[in-house]
Design goal:
Layout: E1 3-6, E2 11-13, E3 27-31, E4 36-38, E5 49-53, E6 59-62, E7 69-75, E8 81-93, E9 102-114, E10 117-123, E11 134-142, E12 148-150, E13 154-157
Parallel strand pairs: 1-3, 2-4, 3-5
Antiparallel strand pairs: 6-7, 7-10, 8-9, 8-11, 11-12, 11-13
């Protein structure tokens, strides 16, 4: 149960002679049209899933090391504006007007920009209290048509 987002940088492959569904269970699946599924039967998803096809801006993040830098990169389509936020990992909260829940508590806007990418980083303190601290990044893209699309969330804990 729950929600799963598969953005365009995702490839799911099966090499089984008689593969089952690529994703099984109940809940919601949002799949970017550029997601690649290889070696699965048709339809590739459990019939108990609610599946929608929509663009999901891709977000990649790297935790960095103590004393180093953590960073994130958001893919921004042509003609759109991207915004990167970072905060603490939180329980997903739905906001009216957005399709996906937010996973951030105390978000800070880190960067704003246009295509093809927006990047941001922060210095990771070289201190023991940072170990285990859960951080979340989230991107938002304002399309040329005025819609707001959220990226996949990126969550990690500093080690």
């Amino acid at each position: 149960t729950g929600e799963l987002l598969l953005h365009g940088g995702t490839t799911i492959t099966s090499q089984n002679a008689s593969p089952g569904p690529a994703i099984a269970g109940t809940g919601n699946l949002a799949i970017d049209p550029d997601t690649v599924l290889q070696g699965f039967t048709n339809p590739p998803f459990d019939p108990n899933l609610t599946v929608v096809s929509r663009t999901i801006p891709g977000l990649d993040a790297a935790a960095g090391t103590l004393g180093g830098n953590a960073s994130a990169t958001l893919a921004v389509p042509a003609g759109a504006t991207g915004v990167l936020f970072v905060g603490f990992a939180a329980t997903p909260t739905f906001v009216p007007g957005l399709l996906d829940p937010l996973w951030l508590a105390g978000p800070v806007r880190m960067a704003v920009g246009g295509a093809p990418t927006v990047t941001a980083s922060y210095a990771v303190p070289n201190a023991t209290w940072v170990r285990g601290l859960q951080i979340a990044w989230r991107g938002a893209v304002l399309t040329g048509g005025g819609a707001i699309e959220l990226s996949n969330p990126a969550l990690y804990a500093h080690l």
